[in-house]
Amino acid sequence: MHPIKINSVSILFNYDRIINDFSIFKLTTSEKYIKFGSLILDEALTGLKSQSVVFEKGSCFYCLYIDGALNTNNISQKLKSVNDGENFSIEKMESIDSLKSIPQHLLAQLFLNSLAAPKNSLLAFNNLAGYLFSINSRLFVKRKSNNGELILKIPSIKIRIDKALQLQLEVKTFSSLVLIKKLNLTKSIKEYSKYSISHSTQKLRRVLPNEKLAASDVFIEKQELGKKTSIPFLSFENQESFSVSKMGFLYSLYNEINSKLSEYITLNFKDIIPEHSLRYNKRLQIEKNEVIDTTVSNNSFHIVDKINDEDSADFCEDLIKSFRAEYPDAKITIGKKEKTKCFNLIVIHNSDYYSRYNIEDPYKKSINSNTSQHITIEDFKHSIKSVVKNTVKELCIKLDIKKGFISLIDWQKYNFKTHWKFGIKHESLFYFLDISPQGQLTFSEFENTLFTQNEYSEYCDIYENVLSENKNENVEGIIVSGENDINVIKSSGEYTLPDFISIGQTFDLANQPFKIKQTELVQIFEDFEKHFSHEKNEVYKNLINESTESVFDRKSILKIINHRTIRKEFTEFFFNKTGNLLHYYFKDSLTRYKLMDSNLDIKYLTKENQGIYFVGTKGEGIQSNFPRASKIRKIVPHNSSKLLFDELLPTMNVDFVKHENITVLPFPFKYLREYVHQSLKAKHICNSHKP
């Protein structure tokens, strides 16, 4: 298998060039921390005219200047006009040794933060509060006003290199103070850093305390209550959609680094080579659908409208129509109250609605959680079909838990010879699921104390010890084999990267204008005929010859050659002849696995007695949008335990945990989480009924 890039970077600095062309200062306060931290950082940029600023947690920050622009005395004088500025000491980092004393991730961030707005006016990089934010005006949320369009929200990508030298792309939203009543404020508005946007450069800048601007021109880093800004990890439907995905932002950053920083810093993404790749097995989907169909035909369903207004009535009618279209033999009714001996599909508002209006959430009062499924109208009114499929699947899992046996898939086909145990922690309690070779389910839960010692106590201790070892890695669960080999699943800050450079360059080529003479195009097509034989070749050649156009561009060529297979073959042939790209074919099997293998199927490898794996989307029938990155997870054997996670890889190759897609953890964890959910709800109801 070929190498796959990940977001971990190796960094090389040209220290001699940095010392020659820049001055870097370290500013340290005598206080325990920097008061008004983000303000002083932003004032350092505006008042001291530095190229960039980066903050080191604690009591210091670094400033980057073009060499000769400023000296230590200049900075000292300027700081005296800033709150608590007299408490700062200043050190110029003017030797290679002093530069090497700066943590690598901070020095790299300092240079990334220095990037100015690129030529593309739609995109801008912003150094705010010691971080780098990238914005694209296509993502702005606007509304019409008397003075034109009013910007309400500015979605952005916060670009940072963490201590582990991993490049992180985080979605952040800057909201206009016009929305102040809707914002989820956790402190006084005076305590938030305020920013304004330049409409000419699309850059954000700090609003200083003495400035007075209209609320519509002031933004804070905050989102509306109950809302979340989503920027897809990768979109390749067209160049515009790519540019506003995370990989599009990364491609822009890559180009900026190469054009402006390559003499000073080199960032290379590390790679890993998978040892195993597991593609989705369609046979499993057929078997799952047969089980679901049988479950539907053997049970009754009842839609319960807990909202009881015009919108919910329409929603319930659409739901019952979609249910009957998907499952014609289903026995389904609709009403206002739950029924016994039925699977109840309960339509309610989402939790934000009940919190906003201080109304008791009916979800919390529902008793039969193992025979009911709640559907929130705000979240699903535009995806009724997926609601039906997902709801029935969830009810099948609940029925399996109730029966104590896996029926949604044939567990015995995995050919496991012994029991498997799966464990998770929720708050102070530990929960375990034991599955027999035949698929029988046994759940248990308890609190790990000195007075509750049993066979599971060792597993709980391991879980807690691993949690305390590395705060940056989250324990997602433990697995225990029949031979008592224990493996721990840990998440990390790493994720895989598609070949975003080739994808971006392909879009650039496919949108680069060109002209070709009619005679040249005829000659190229005649050469094409010698290598590719198609019935329509003669038709297309005649259309080119008989055209009244003496010069052709991309659009006119594609208008003539409209047969998909011929167009695809001619696109490659034409590119090899002219260097001009007619069209892109990212969904083609060879192309998608060449450019996006990092985000397809299940991949696994071993390294230093640890397992490493990541899960993408199904390789077949992919969409043009990958909402999330493929996170890298690590499998750590406990003490002398065998590394055995590869045996469980097939248990992730199912599509009933994530809707119509493969799952990132062995599917028994889904059963275990559902059991935990039911257990917690039962305790809540029991406690609420106590006098």
Q: Can you count the helices?
A: 20
From the alpha carbons, calculate the radius of gyration and give it in angstroms: 30 Å
Report the helical percentage.
Answer: 25-40%
Roughly how many Å apart are the termini? 64 Å
**Main sheet attributes: strand count, strand direction, barrel closure:** 11 strands, antiparallel
Mean pLDDT: 88
Helix/strand/pairing class, anyone?
A: alpha+beta
Give your account of this protein's structure.
The protein has 691 residues and is an alpha+beta fold. It has 5 domains: 12-101, Alpha-Beta Plaits, CATH 3.30.70; 123-270, no CATH class; 282-403, Chitobiase, domain 2 (2-Layer Sandwich); 411-497 and 596-682, no CATH class; 513-580, no CATH class. Helix content is 32%, strand content 27%. It is built from 20 helices and 31 strands. The strands form 7 sheets. Strands 1, 15, 16, 21, 22, 23, 24, 25, 28, 29 and 31 form an 11-stranded antiparallel beta sheet that branches. Strands 6, 7, 8, 9, 10 and 13 form a 6-stranded antiparallel beta sheet that branches. It has a 4-stranded antiparallel beta sheet with strand order 3-4-2-5, with helices on both faces. α15 (518-531) packs antiparallel against α16 (537-546). The longest helix is centred in the last third of the chain and has 21 residues, at 668-688. It is globular, with a radius of gyration of 30 Å. The N and C termini lie far apart (64 Å).
